[in-house]
Design goal:
Elements (H helix, E strand, L loop, with lengths): L8 H39 L4 H6 L3 E2 L6 E2 L2 H32 L2 H13 L5 H19 L8 H25 L3 H9 L4 H12 L1 H17 L2 H6 L17 H9 L8 H33 L3
Antiparallel strand pairs: 1-2
Helix pairs in contact: 1-12, 3-6, 3-9, 4-6, 5-6, 6-9, 7-8, 9-12, 11-12
Length: about 300
């Protein structure tokens, strides 16, 4: 194969493509840096008026009412409560689905079920939100009359359905990547298919499964529309899923509607909450990448 001559059209084309790809990568990095800079600069203005200790340790969130309080813990509580409820639904069901598709389903069934599950990921989140309000909440209130019109349980159920494809698809990929030699060795010593799946394949694919769990939880924490429509706007320290709560993302939507004057401390709470949410999701994504790297290197 002949090499391209210096200055030839093919060399110029390769350089142009390389420059375009570099520009796309640089644009992504610059966008991220710009977001971080805006969050930091606006948050510094907020923390100049509000103590970071009060913000991170306070248990009352009332930036609009006198006396004003800026304790973020009620919003964190609501966020984690909904995310935990979604995880209780999505993680076991998603893992069980992944085990079935990887170890027990026929090729035809796998080719049908897996794409059908992944279709759920393409449904707009606003549709999930209205599904929670119009269908899930009335069903919950028929069984639990004490449940509010807006409640954390409805948001958690629908959010669990929404992140289910992420758990099942990524976990199934992790299980399918386990070498067949491990399965054959287990069958060779008389293990049953159930024992092979639960004692050999799942432990071997655990780093990849854990990474899918972390990514799904990160997605649940960062979700906006479902919790805004279904969970309500009542920040508080509660573990009752039947009560209304407010998440960090729902509060960001509330402030973004334009009720708070720009430059005011109420307006800057938007960036302080956004910065904390950014740090939480960043930490979860870094943890997921570390687990994925460990999974990739475990069989090399």
């Amino acid at each position: 194969m002949q090499k391209s001559e210096p200055g030839s059209a093919s060399t110029f084309g390769e350089r142009l493509i390389g420059a375009l790809l570099f520009g796309c990568g640089a644009l992504s990095i610059l966008t991220t840096v710009g977001i971080v800079v805006v969050l930091l600069t606006q948050s510094l203005g907020f923390f100049a008026e509000v103590s970071p200790v009060e913000f991170l340790a306070g248990t009352r969130w009332s930036p609009d009412l006198v006396p004003r309080s800026f304790g973020i813990l009620p919003l964190v509580n609501g966020t984690l409560l909904v995310a935990a409820g979604a995880a209780l639904i999505a993680l076991p069901v998603g893992l069980a689905t992944a085990i079935y598709l990887s170890e027990f389903a026929s090729i035809r069934t796998k080719r049908t079920v897996k794409p059908a599950l992944e279709i759920l990921a393409g449904i707009p989140t606003v549709v999930y939100g209205y599904f929670a309000v119009i269908l899930v909440t009335p069903i919950l209130r028929s069984f639990f009359p004490s449940a509010g019109v807006f409640n954390a349980a409805s948001a958690a159920i629908v959010l669990g359905i929404m992140i289910l494809p992420m758990v099942s698809s990524l976990s199934e990929d992790a299980l399918s990547a386990v070498p067949d030699a491990l399965r054959e060795a287990a069958y060779g010593v008389g293990a049953t298919p159930y024992e092979v799946a639960t004692r050999i394949v799942v432990p071997a694919g655990l780093p990849g499964i854990a990474a899918s769990f972390v990514l799904a939880i990160s997605r649940a924490i960062a979700e906006t529309i479902v919790v805004t429509l279904a969970a309500g706007a009542t920040p508080g320290m509660t573990l009752d899923l039947l009560q209304s709560v407010q998440t960090m993302t729902a509060y960001i939507v509330q402030v973004s509607l334009g009720d708070a004057p720009p430059g005011s401390v109420e307006y800057r709470t938007l960036f302080a909450v956004g910065l904390l949410l950014f740090l939480i999701t960043l930490a979860l994504n870094l943890l997921s990448q570390r687990m994925t790297a460990r999974f990739r290197g475990s069989f090399q």
